[in-house]
Amino acid sequence: MTEQQMPTWADPSVPPAALDAQGVSRRALMRRAGLFGAAFALGSAAVPAAAASGRGFGGDDPRLAYLVGDHHIHSVYSHDAKYTFSQLATAAATYGLDWMVFNEHSNFGHASYGAALEHQEILKARAENPRQLIFQGLEWYIPAAEHCTVFAAPGPHEVDLLTRFELAYDGKLLGYTDGAPDHPNTARNEAHAVKAIQWLAEQRRTGYVDDVLVLANHPLRLGIDSPHEMRNWRDAAPEIVIGMEGAPGAQGGGIPGWEGPDSQRGEYTNKPSANSWPGYPENAYVLYGGFDWMTATVGGMWDAMLAEGKLFTITTNSDVHRVVFDTWKNGDWPPGQNFDNTGHIPDPVNTASPQPGGDFWPGQFSRTHVGVTRYGYRAVMAGLRAGRVWLDHGHLLDGLDVRLKRDCDHGRGVTLGGRLRVRKGEKLTLNVTVTTASRPNSHGVLPELAHVDVIRGAVRGAVADRDTWRAPDTRVVHTKDVQGRKGTYTLRIPLTAGDESFYVRLRGSDGNRHAAGYLGASVDPHGPIPHEPGNGDPWADTWFYANPVFVDIVS
Q1: Alpha carbons 367 and 356: distance in angstroms, whole number
Q2: Distance of CA 102 to CAs 74, 84, 231, 240, 441, Å?
Q3: Which of 237, 249, 293, 399 could form a disulfide with 201 if both were Cys (CB 3.0 to 4.6 A apart)?
Q4: How many C-beta neighbours within 10 Å does residue 198 have?
């Protein structure tokens, strides 16, 4: 593999004068974490998986630098996309991405031709963009369910793993798409999805690949990812199936006047079908503040999974196929060629007029921030697995650092995805360090954070009903008004350990659109809300979300 270089903002050989405003801000954050220069040099050391910090009480997680990425990107090697690798890598660099995953749609053309051809493009892109971490992945059609991102660490078997997996386990290729509760094929199809995940875990265990991860994509777009399926995937190999898209791509779909009177952010325009899980209400099929209902509902599906005491990471991304207001169109097929016999579509051609599309470029609007102690592919994957993740829309924040500690401890405490061991009744402090946006985003708006919400939920262990989507003891417990605050500041929020283990997570927004949350004001007094069809300007309704910190009550 080509020698990897650090991003410009992290490279001490690059003078500050050569950085843009985003790079200057990120370098300052990195220096604050004590990771600048040699301390952040390329290495294979991984961020340790989330676990209780030692055998004693409290905890002291390392300082982290956050790498910005996108795990859901489509190129000419997807049958319904448009852009070349060069176009996408260039755009990603423009918007500050450090890592990206090309997860092309599975189909026979991709499995037979495209995956291998794409791998050559991946190698070329890595050589041409040594300051970016570029993964090869696959958008897996889960048997009986929706889509997933599957990606492996670079190595001699990364493309072989994906191709073998695609041919043996893809629901579309196998015809294993039936998922209705009363369909005779559903049980077989759901079982095959679990076998697929177990197969990936075995490839990692035996060292065929160094690492592999799976994230569920747009989980409630069609309503076909039932709660029990999501729990089954997670429990089959929690080190492989680590989470889901908390917010899908295609966020430009709601721009007023662009895609029609019924357009929605995320292109969430569906109704329940025969394959949908019947327990989801119809108003769960749209986004709330740009986030999937599973994530946006305090006390909803994401919280129900966290309330079992098991980490389940959320992400956001572009799902880029066709960018809003872009003037490129698909090229024409040569005679006798199609996707099935080539594995890729023709390169795009520029025109003089905007073309249809509801996506943003990678990193332009949606960003997933992953905490690492070193720069490199495996460090990003380990950071994702450890849950050291926060996400934002519209470049709402420059930085976020979260630490939970016992008041009697002097260390840094534990951070996102971690676990803090405490005694019943102990006093705790949640330290939330915010670095506000330092520059206008690509829409010309300087984002301003209006509030930070602290959400707390009881941890009760495994549920008896694996189709429950409710966490009845989760609610917003603190809200901090931060309007007008600039630069870097720390919120110190007191908490008390009660009789049972719990978790806390964070959320915040620009304050433009909110009302009582989905489960009522007593649970969430000012949560995200859906927009009217055709009137969902994403730049005017931006939020950040962060992964939980768990607190284990021990005697």
Answers
A1: 23
A2: 6, 11, 26, 18, 24
A3: 237
A4: 12
